[in-house]
Amino acid sequence: MYATTETLATTPAAQGSRSRWLALYTLCAGMLMIVLDVTVVNVALPAIQDDLGFTSSSLAWVVNAYLIAFGGLLLLAGRLGDLLGRRNVFTAGLVVFTIASVLCGLARSQEVLVIARFIQGVGGALTSAVILGMIVTLFPEPREQAKAIGMFAFVASAGGSIGLLAGGVLTQAISWHWIFFVNLPIGVLTTALAVKFIEKDKGLGLGRGTDVPGAVLITGALMLGVFTIVKPAAELGWTAPRTLLLAAITLALLAGFIVREATAANPLVPLRIFRSRTLTGANLVQALSSSGMFGIFFLGSLYLQRVLGYDALEIGLAFLPTTVVMGLLSVKYSEKLVMRFGPRRPLIVGLSLIVVGLALFTQAPVGGNYFIHVLPVLALLGLGGGICFPALMGLSMSDVKPEDAGLASGLIGTMGEVGAALGLAILATLSATRTATSTKSPLEALTDGYHFSFGVAAAIVAAAVAIAAIVMRPTKQAVTTEDPEPELLCEAA
């Protein structure tokens, strides 16, 4: 079985079904706010540039400041959840994120906006790092857990396309400031619901993992690594001296962290957690699939904008089928698939559908038709994501001890964030290079660059399929009979 009561059940049974599902909705609301913010900001970047006078290069810091803080702190935030209590870390993150959002909306200078975005990244890391660990403790029973993880996976993976639509509407109808101000009522309400519906957990205490040197090493390594990917590697190239120097420093910090964790009496990240082939494989799959999917959503948006001439609102509407299909599968059917076949087979099938969709995208031409060349791709991505991501989230937590749930949750988030940043940098660079060296007309050269990156993304996700098939052990079928399904969602509503 991919989850056991003995491994994951740390929430008292006294917490009723209704309150547990309301707690889940609260956690998903917090995650949705974090996920939406990423793509909402991307849509508003041109308006922000015009209003605050950013140059093309400095504008990247509106995104990079957030990514560096978010990606750098996820692992530490997950472990802090184990030590200080996950609800405490979750609510603290919501408060920080909400306050920083207001500061972003009030920003009248480039410096204030970039600093506020960094603080937003800190809040986002604290909030999102502990969510998966809280879900598996709230729902120790396999069927309920599969359903709950399906809802979380939908929010985490499909929320970005909703952000494209929301960003277009808010930016065009009001102003870019409101993409941040809208987080204030959502953040306040979610914080209040968290205090009311999420049961407070005590945590292990800082004495079980107060590893200051380890925290400094891993946070420094992750922040510097993300910075290296999104700045010098993306702008100067992967072989530029500055890129190689920062990459070497990043690797040295990681090596120092591993040595520290192997020798510390109370390590921040116990290395024993990586003995599980399932957990290690799940994190590798997460990194590779995030690399392919995130980069393609970015480049796919550029294809729609620069080649087909779509505006921000039209791009958001174009991606809605992905969200609808992914949501339907994640919430309604993923639990049934996982319970019937175990999580490994749905994971492989879902990833394979994503590979097919990405390969199909390489055939979208200049002047392509949305219904012929784009919609089938987005439908396959939604279908594959809706099948595989809930299974992947379940596998990532399946062999985790209760005291390590926050760490494992932060780890899978870290791998997804670093994978997304790395994939975006690689695919964008490859696309630009292919376009620059093409002898075709400008639009054909641009499309040729996108096609090349779509093919590379398909190969990256295909590598994730291979890891899922080879590294991860087959899991036993969790349920062999059709038990009556509890109407918990209806009850919670």
Automatic annotation (TrEMBL):
PROSITE patterns: MFS
Top-level taxonomic group: Bacteria
Topological type in the membrane: Multi-pass membrane protein
SUPFAM superfamilies: MFS general substrate transporter
Transmembrane regions listed in the UniProt entry: 21-47, 59-77, 89-108, 114-139, 151-170, 176-198, 210-230, 242-259, 280-303, 315-334, 346-364, 370-395, 407-430, 450-471
Residue ranges of every copy of the Major facilitator superfamily (MFS) profile domain listed in the record: 23-476
Compartments where located: Cell membrane
Matching Pfam families: MFS_1 (PF07690)
Classification via InterPro entries: EmrB-like, MFS, MFS_dom, MFS_trans_sf
Keywords: Cell membrane, Membrane, Transmembrane, Transmembrane helix, Transport
CDD domains: MFS_MMR_MDR_like
Protein's name in the database: EmrB/QacA subfamily drug resistance transporter
